[in-house]
Specification:
single chain, mainly alpha
Length: 160
């Protein structure tokens, strides 16, 4: 029976990486599913420092998810409305043909808003492209942090 629990934990961990490209799957929360299977299915225990660390990293990942587009748009000269549309685009894009919606919806919204703000087409494209770069860099950062979380989990399990 123990093998089944470990397989389920592995499925949760793999699904968390799937969530990087299919945003309907909440990556970091799926990781917590694996942690909870260990606690309740295998009657394991994890230290208080583990839980505090996971909470901090989870909050960090959720903030990165929402702010990456805003920061990239702002740094490339986007307007306040461009920043807002980048954030709204991420939220809407998560439900519109994932993962492409997460790339296209913010891109189109930022492009349209920046053109309405009297930016040249090349400036608007540059700013909109920043929302695409935000998706890529945010996904990379999340993959790194999720890997750290999984490694930390296994270190805790082996030490305990």
């Amino acid at each position: 029976m123990e093998v089944i629990w470990w397989v389920l934990i592995a499925v949760f961990f793999i699904a968390s990486y799937v969530g990087l490209i299919v945003p309907i799957v909440p990556s970091v929360l799926v990781l917590w599913g694996g942690f909870l299977v260990y606690i309740f299915g295998l009657s394991g225990s994890l230290s208080m420092w583990f839980w505090i660390g996971m909470a901090v990293l989870t909050i960090f990942l959720l903030i990165v998810d929402f702010l990456a587009n805003v920061i990239f748009v702002k740094r490339t000269g986007g307007s306040k409305w461009g920043e807002r549309m980048a954030l709204i685009g991420v939220i809407i894009g998560a439900f519109v043909y994932p993962p492409f919606g997460l790339i296209l919806v913010p891109f189109v919204l930022v492009l349209a808003v920046e053109l309405l703000q009297q930016k040249t087409f090349s400036e608007a494209i540059k700013i909109a492209f920043a929302s695409f770069l935000a998706f890529l860099s945010g996904s990379f950062a999340k993959a790194v942090v999720q890997t750290v979380m999984i490694i930390w989990f296994f270190i805790e399990v082996w030490i305990a």
